[in-house]
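Next up, sample data:
>
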Amino acid sequence: MASLELFFIISLAPLLQGWESADIAGPKQVTGILNGEVTIQCFYSTVTKANKYDRKFLCKETAHQRSCSTIISTNRYVSPNFAGRATIQDSTDKGVFIVQLKALKHEDQGNLKCGIGLNSFGLFSSIYLSVTEDSTVPEDADLIFGQLKSSVLITCKFDGQFSSSRKYLCKIGLHNCMTVIDSYGAVGEAYKGRTMLHNDLNPATFKIRLIHLRKEDAGYYSCGIGNYGAPGESKVIDLRISEETDIANTQKVLTAAVGGSISAECHYTPNVTYERKHWCKWREHGCTDLMDTNGFIKDAFEGRIMIYDSPENGTFTVLMNQLKKEDEGWYWCGTSDGTTDYTTTVQVKITEGQPGLNGSKTVIVPAGKSVKLPCYYPCKYSRYQKYWCKWENSICTPVASSEDDESGLSVNCDKEQRVLTLSIDQIKPKDEGWYWCGVKQAGRYGETLAVLVKIGHEAVPQDGTRSKSIPGNRAADQNDWQQEAPTSSHSELRSQLVLSIVLPICAVILLAAAVFLFIRLKKNSDLVSVGSYRTDISLADLDNSQRAGKDNIDIEHTQETEMASTKDASKSSKKGSKEDLTYTTFLIHGDGGPQETTD
């Protein structure tokens, strides 16, 4: 039993003594001048709400390091040895408490701990206090405390002597200092899309923002002017990362086709009042704002970007469509509560291929005409919720889904053809603008398609060619004005090739037929003169004329009667006639069939 009790005592010893934690951070070392003063800042995570209201303290270890005697705490306790020489101030909203020690003595030097909880157990960070009589105090590393997946801002301020030289931030290793970012545009591979450097109004001051912090980002950094280890100015940064976080993981890489769209979900802490939520495109020396929740939209993205905010879920979704190759890169979605910025990154890759949603990008319609805007979707979106909305002033208002809507707008979904059609009846100036077709599932927004509708004289597709009619069951009513994709250039070339072969052959055939008819008519005109001779033919002659000749091989079913012979004639020649002549001719009707007639 005694051995079991000893085992529990040994196991609980670290808890009774407290333990070094990444969720509270104090400087590794501080130096003060004898009879002078020092300021000690200790940061703590505010994710655990108990940390905000629990006891904060600074204590000094005894010679045997078995206990830590409290110097001062937020419970209004001050050690008699530091009476009148120690103060403490706690900022629960910022997650930092500050202890100031005055009138330093040699016996104040030693190992200190700043922590949360009771002396015997709790969270703490070890600090070494050095008291010197030298007038020059070495510069200690600047402590910066960041929350996992959040961001930090590092300010580097120097004299103006080297203000025109290279500015940099690098992470100190055993044998070198790995570049994080510099003013020449270099960015470390592990920090691409997560850091930026921008100059302050003071030319010798610059700031570096590092976002979406990772555990491996913790360590010592050097920010300076010039080159690390060379003449210039620099300072050491001690970056600590709290492993507690209330920021959810986000999708790091989004892929879309040229002309397609993305949907990026950004997370933030619910029930917190934020001054601003924004979406910007990252570059080495800044992040260009594209849109924010206060109504700002960059001109080049008007009509093709949207932010849907869901405070109840702690998310806002950024939708971008009509993507171009130059839209590829890193984007930041961030929130600001006035004191702290929380930023996450999204990488967008643009590839070749077809977007999931397809349709016209621009439609021009005459005033008063009807128009149908088709939105074709693939099989994978068959079970998704689909919608049309009108984009205006950063808001996309859903349009009616009823055929009897008084506004003249209606939506119809043909599930067999996989097309969602928006119909606008008798378009008016108020109907001009951007219309979005989109899909969503379980409240999450997916792909979108943006269509710009304008009032004009004729429909002009995006590539500038005249609209073609839609074949088959995708044709619109003839009363509707609708833009469709032009026929492919391959089909046009093949049609031109066929015509270039067929037309000469037809011309030769028609020429041969014309020559034959001319010869035949010429022969008949030599035998008969219509103006000089009288035609005398009876019904009997027509009945007896059964033999036909197919002299014209180009015209089927065309028949000519032969000239009557003397022995078959049923009537004798009349006196006074110079010559008796009987003949027949034929007519071809519009239906292609012959009819025998007499003159």
Notes: The first strand starts at residue 19 and ends at 20. Confidence is low (pLDDT under 50) at residues 1-17, 460-495, 525-599. Residues 357 and 377 are 5 Å apart (CA to CA). The longest helix spans residues 489-527.
